[in-house]
Amino acid sequence: MAMKIRLARGGSKKRPFYRIVAADSRMPRDGRFIEKLGTYNPLLAKDNEQRVVMDMDRVNHWLGEGAQPTDRVARMLEAAGVLEKKTRNNPNKAKPGKKAEDRAQEKADKAAAAAEAAAAPAEEPVVEEAVAEEAPAEDVAAEETATE
User: Fold this and answer.
1) Starting at the edge strand that comes first in sequence, how are the strands of the sheet with 68-69 ordered?
2) Sign, Cα dihedral of 64, 70, 71, 76
3) For 94, phi and psi rounded to 5 degrees?
4) For 53-85, b where at least 16 C-beta lie within 10 A, e where not — what string?
5) What is the mean pLDDT of residues 9-14?
6) pLDDT-based confidence at 36, cuts 50/70/90?
7) Better-predicted residue by pLDDT, 122 or 40
């Protein structure tokens, strides 16, 4: 029988409250458990001593029996000093997401275009704009004569 020390969710909707329990790994998350080992209330402040309350004697007993803590419970036990800290490596954590990369690329493109415009003589863009303004007026006149 594979034992787990895990969180069983209680509380109402949007107001979570967890029991830290020793349970058979085949049982449902909130289902049958063998022993309640403590509580975890994520709504309390991180420095509040009531946020995580555990019966360390019983936790050590179950760890001695071969119970495996889940990732979240293992972090709580590391914070309490019961387990040694694992070295974790998530190289993708610092990388920006796809949308952030797209925004950075757009910003770089705009900056490059602005630098190009500043480097070019000041009169050329004005001439191009004047030509661009005249062309639609001729198109409108041509369309009006075609409709008549």
Assistant:
1) 52-54, 35-40, 15-24, 3-12, 68-69
2) negative
3) -85, -10
4) ebeeebbeebbeeebebeeebbbbbeeeeebee
5) 92
6) very high
7) 40
Could you tell me whether strands 52-54 and 3-12 are parallel, antiparallel, or unpaired per DSSP bridges? unpaired
Confidence category of residue 137, pLDDT binned at 50, 70, 90 = low
Residues in the chain, total: 148
Residue 112's CB: how many other CB atoms inside 10 A?
10
For residue 35, give the nearest of 50, 49, 19 by alpha carbon. 19
Amino acid at 52: V
Q: What is the pLDDT of residues 70-82, one digit of tens each?
A: 989 988 888 887 7
Phi (first) and psi of residue 131, to 5 degrees: -65, -40
Q: Is the dihedral of CA 55, 11, 73, 87 positive or negative?
A: negative
Q: Are 59 and 5 in contact (CB under 8 A)?
A: yes
Place of tokens 């800290």: 85
Is residue 126 pLDDT above 80, yes or no? no
Strand locations in 76-146 (E) = none
